[in-house]
Amino acid sequence: MAPDETSPASSQFSDAIRLQLNRNQRNWDARTPIHVNSRFYGVGERDPMSWFAPFEWEDLGELAGRRVLHLQCHLGTETMAFALKGARATGLDFSGAAVQEAKRLARAAHLAIDYRHADVYAAVEALAGQRFDIVYTGKGALCYLPDLAGWARTVWELLRPGGFLYLVEFHPLLNALGPTKGQDEADDLLLRHDYLEGRGAIERDSSHTYTDGPPLSGDSVHYEWRHGLGEVVTALARCGFVIDSLTETELLPWPRWPAMVRTDSGWWALPPTQPRFPVMYGLKASRAR
């Protein structure tokens, strides 16, 4: 389901935000064929487990037999890892092109994954009232959501009592520094964008995505919303979630800066001679009732 004017997911938003959401969906449809053929994703070659930081598996715990929902799953790279761990995995994304590719990749890997095409805000309806043990999301997902309070309510409704959300997301500090290098920008650690929310969507028009590969043939404009760590925690707490843990880490799944070195985990970090600061975080929040 695309977030257009008839979507129940978008009806809560103004005309301007509905247009931004619609353009984001078209942008991700355009990205999908580039991403599925990119070296960055390494489809068919890269181990799905490699998309996870070591602390994620510790926080997620035993997954065999558990019902896991991956929101904003894109190509389903992490979703496949859940299925390989023995979970009953479901993935949801607003890009119809991405969902079709995710289904194809799951079939090729002989994995039974239930993929749904829907906007996050329409997930409860799209999943027909299903409840899950774990809702997982992140790694570049929250910036495409204009309303975190509505997102938190949606996640609450998708979880069974006793279940938990696990959010692994790029730290707002990394977003402020710039998660990818812009044209003619130096590699210095300089603040380039807001850390805090409140100034509306940032419009980006780029012919290339964060992966290798050819330029987009169209639909290059997309919109991102800034969300500070305080906004994320507050949205969850006000919805009734209990915050179990918050892990900040210097690890990234790719080398954002040339000085970064590969760690024993396979992920990347700045060398010990550089200042340590968080570039990702993992947040576990439980639905107590």
From TrEMBL:
Keyword Transferase: yes
Keywords: Methyltransferase, Transferase
Start and end residues of each Methyltransferase type domain: 69-165
GO molecular function, one term: methyltransferase activity
GO biological process: methylation
Protein name: SAM-dependent methyltransferase
Organism: Mycobacterium simiae (Mycobacterium habana)
